Amino acid sequence: MDTIVEIIIAVGCLILGGVLGFILFRYIIKQRYNQIIKEARIEAEALKEKKQLELKEKFLNRKSEFEKEANQRNQKMQSYENKLKQRELSLNQQNEDIQKKQNEVESQRISLNKQKEKLDVLINDQRAKLEIISGLTTEEARESLIESLKDEAKTQAQQYINEIMDEAKMTANKEAKKIVIQSIQRVASETAVENSVSVFHIDSDEVKGRVIGREGRNIRALEAATGTEIVVDDTPEAIVISAFDPVRREICRLALHQLVADGRIHPARIEEVVAKVKKQVEDEIVETGKRTCIDLGVHGLHPELVRIVGKMKYRSSYGQNLLQHARETANLCAVMAAELGLNPKKARRAGLLHDIGKVPDEQLEVPHALYGAQIAEKYKEKPDICNAIGAHHDEMEMNTLLAPIVQVCDAISGARPGARREIVEAYLKRLNDLENLAASYPGVTKTYAIQAGRELRVIVGADKISDKEIDALSADIAKKIQDEMTYPGQVKITVIRETRAVAFAK
Question: Is residue 322 a contact partner of residue 312, using CB atoms and an 8 Å limit?
């Protein structure tokens, strides 16, 4: 029993000690909490005072800076106000000066008006005296003076026009000759002559007999297949192929070459070889067109235009190979366009295509320049290229600077020595037409076409035409030749007026 009591007492002591310990711990914690709160409040007050001091210091600094900026702005405004006041004073002074000058001008104007009135009175008096002395009224004297002034003005105007034309000719001819000569010098071309016949060389008369065939059947078959005329005569080691179309002549020549090399010559073989050669020639035409475009740097042409360009190889104009002429014209156009500051690529393209109307697949009555323009337009060439093609023989109005360049370069290519052959009758007829055209003018006594038609000398009567009229006569003849005749290059018209005095000693 005592043990239980002791245990209960011990437990009670433990519980009482725990309660007293808890109360003491709580008291200590509360004291510590109050101390921490107090210390935090003290630190907060100190931090608050510090921040207030910092803010007050910043405020004072900003206030001093603002006052400084305000003082500077006030000083600037004051200087601007001073300048404006000075300008205002200067403008007021200028206005006063202007007003003074206006007053002076007004006084001078009044004085001049008075003097003018006095002069008008004096002039009227002098005019009346002159009318009495001369016996002419003012209107009659004015008309007489106007007539004399008209004659004098006409003479001076003609002299002035002649001086301007001479000066323009000197400068323009000099520059034009320079550009043309540079273009010609920079483009070298060979002279090509095409005929209407081709000669096929053979090794022996035995081969000639095999080509003829039994009773001429091989020749007839070849003529029928190629559309040419084959002349076999006594000429040794040669067969003449005649045809107006150079493509047919070339097909016949190549077919003969393959037949002779192969040795099998009979009508069926001839037709087979001719069909193959036609395909080869067509391929060669396209390849020639492509190679020409690549050589000249002309890109983007329609395939049909490329074929037409290649077909020019087998065409000629006055004995000049058409493809060679087109290449030469294209190069001349590019050089001349570059000299004039234009696009040389466009000029080269127009020069290459300018004669595509000469190689149509069908025969048309339209001039080749207009037909060429239609072809170019059909295959989507640009309008300035089409215009240059259609206008290079003045059959269409020129709308761009490319057109005269193509026209001039076409004439240069065709007019250079050795480029073309003309039929003698046509050449003589052109010279006669030149002389007759100039002789149709009144006052012309003699005409001579010299230098192969490049110059026309016109001799006029001294008693029928004056020195002042010969310039107009030469210009009229040149314009009429230009409008009515077709010729390569240019024609120089020289009008000669001479006065002769003849006496006889007896």
Answer: yes
Residue 371 · residue 364 · CB < 8 Å: yes
Straight-line distance from the first to the last Cα atom of the chain, in angstroms, rounded to the nearest whole number: 209
**Going by C-beta distance under 8 Å and a sequence separation of 6 or more, which residues neighbour residue 374?**
357, 366
Highest mean pLDDT among 268-277, 324-333, 484-493: 324-333
Burial class (CB in 10 A: 0-12, 13-18, 19+), 448: middle
To 5 degrees, how large is the angle CA 287–CA 289–CA 290? 65
In terms of phi and psi (left: phi > 0; alpha: psi -120 to 50; beta: otherwise), the region of 441 is beta
Cα(477)–Cα(404) distance, integer angstroms: 22
Query: What secondary structure letter does DSSP report for 242?
Result: E
Q: Name the token pair of 366.
A: 């339209």
Helix (H, G, I), strand (E, B) or coil at 363: coil
Note if the pTM is more than 0.70.
no
Closest of 310, 305, 353, 351 to residue 330, by C-alpha: 351
Considering the four listed CATH numbers 3.40.1360.10, 1.10.1660.10, 3.30.160.20, 3.30.1370.10, the one that applies to the domain covering 197-286 is 3.30.1370.10
Spatial contact of 456 and 449, defined as CB atoms under 8 Å apart:
yes
- Give residue-wise pLDDT tens across range 214-226: 777 877 788 777 7
Q: Domain segments of the chain: what residues?
A: 197-286, 297-415, 424-497
CA-CA distance, 271 to 260, in Å (whole number)? 14
**Cα separation, 286 vs 291, whole angstroms:** 9
pLDDT, tens digit, 9 for 90 and up, residues 179-237? 666 665 555 454 434 455 667 777 776 777 777 777 778 777 887 777 777 777 666 77
CA separation for the pair 176, 280 (Å, rounded): 45
The Cα 168–Cα 190 span in angstroms is: 35
* CATH no., domain 424-497: 3.30.300.30
Residues in the chain: 506
In angstroms, the Cα distances linking 86 to 74, 82, 95 are 18, 6, 14
Q: What are the DSSP E strand ranges found in 167-314?
A: 197-201, 229-231, 238-242
Pairing status of strand 197-201 against strand 238-242:
antiparallel
The structural architecture, per CATH, of the domain 297-415 is Orthogonal Bundle (1.10)
Residue 421 CB burial class (10 angstroms; 0-12, 13-18, ≥19)? middle
Distance, in Å, from the CA atom of 352 to the CA atom of 332, rounded to the nearest integer, reads 10
Question: Which of 238, 268, 241 lies closest to 254 in space, CA to CA?
Answer: 241
What is d(CA 361, CA 356) in angstroms, rounded to the nearest whole number?
11
For 460, residues 6+ apart whose C-beta sits below 8 A from its C-beta are: 443, 444, 445, 470, 473, 495, 496, 497
